[in-house]
UniProtKB/TrEMBL annotation:
It comes from Streptomyces dangxiongensis. It comes from the Bacteria. The lineage of its organism: Bacteria, Bacillati, Actinomycetota, Actinomycetes, Kitasatosporales. This is Tetratricopeptide repeat protein. InterPro entries: TPR-like_helical_dom_sf. Gene3D superfamilies: Tetratricopeptide repeat domain.
Length: 346
């Protein structure tokens, strides 16, 4: 049985904040409480309020502010001798590094966070940090290495009745099944994630689950209208909660759904919107995937073949350098789709 979802990253004076609080509100209150703690000379409280500030900045796409905030939180936690707070700050930093495409740094920070969480007796930050390591591997397409870890973390979250973490794990496993072609299994897992998130009032998790369901409905069933309905529902939540990254990925998925339906002009518009959003928040993976969708849409709309070939070849090199294996494979499929694979090999 799962209880109401909660946000363990909202700590100290901010524990009254909801998992569904607007990120703009979190940032405002977190900054105010952080300043109060600093004026009072309370580094432990400053560390925990600073964590919420760092996470709000990160999720809003304020990369530089997020980077400064998590480092300040870590320094304050170290001054206070608070091992668990140090772990949380490192978790935030590692999550930001993954968002920015700095995968080796992400793994290093998240491993340190997991170790400190265990040493500090905070099972939640340990679990979140291990989850971050698993997600980093999944995003890079290393399913064999992280699949077992996802399953382990799912079992731990279920045993504690922790709805938000269970939803995260289900969605991660579902995404791996979707990417390897087991669409029925992926749909069942996304559906379970949506049900748990809905009952636990985890609106962020619910929005991500709807995105996954829409993707599978589009690929497996060609159910374009239903997929767009689910994405519209998720988009409303993203806007209400100021979930910048989730909103950008939602727009990219709208592009995917429209592209599969042969509605290439509409798909182009969605990809252009997502691309601008990802560039604003300096999220290279989302930017690359949006560029790919845009290039494919433009090709169908009559773009010069040589320009398409050059764009896809450059994207392939970018993704190869960044270590995004699954995304690199999607570019290879696009090259084959347009008969450009032989040209790319020259």
């Amino acid at each position: 049985m799962y209880g109401k979802a909660f946000a363990p990253e909202y700590q100290g004076a901010l524990t009254t904040l909801s998992v569904n609080s607007s990120l703009v509100d979190v940032l405002a209150e977190g900054t105010e409480r952080l300043r109060e703690a600093e004026r009072a000379g309370l580094p432990g409280e400053a560390a925990r309020c600073g964590l919420a500030v760092a996470e709000a900045h990160r999720r809003l796409g304020h990369v530089r502010d997020a980077d400064r905030a998590w480092k300040a939180s870590y320094r304050a936690a170290r001054e206070a001798g608070d091992t668990a707070a140090m772990a949380w700050a490192l978790w935030s930093g590692g999550t930001l590094a993954r968002q920015r495409g700095a995968f080796p740094l992400a793994r290093r920070l998240l491993k340190l966070a997991a170790d400190l969480g265990e040493r500090g007796g905070d099972v939640v930050v340990r679990g979140y940090s291990l989850a971050g390591l698993a997600e980093t591997g999944r995003i890079q397409g290393d399913y064999a290495a992280v699949g077992r870890l996802h399953e382990q973390l799912l079992a731990e979250a279920r045993s504690r009745g922790e709805a938000r973490h269970t939803v995260w794990a289900l969605e991660g496993i579902a995404q791996m099944h979707r990417n390897t072609g087991d669409l029925d299994r992926a749909y069942a897992l996304f559906e379970e994630a949506a049900q748990i998130a809905g009952r636990a009032d985890d609106r962020r998790g619910y929005a991500w689950a709807l995105r996954g369901l829409a993707d599978v409905l589009s690929v497996r069933d060609g159910a374009t209208a239903r997929a767009l309905e689910l994405l519209a529902e998720a988009e409303a939540t993203c806007r209400e909660m100021n979930l910048s990254s989730a909103l950008a990925y939602n727009h990219k998925m709208q592009g995917n759904v429209l592209y599969r339906a042969g509605r290439h002009a509409e798909a182009r518009d969605r990809y252009e919107l997502a691309l601008a959003e990802f560039r604003t928040m300096s999220e290279p993976r989302g930017e690359a995937l949006s560029r790919l969708g845009l290039a494919k849409s433009l090709a169908h709309l009559g773009r010069d073949r040589a320009e398409t070939a050059a764009e896809l070849a450059e994207l392939a090199r970018t993704l190869e350098r960044s270590g995004l294996r699954h995304a690199r494979e999607t570019v290879a499929r696009a090259q084959r789709e347009f008969g450009l694979d032989a040209e790319a090999a020259r």
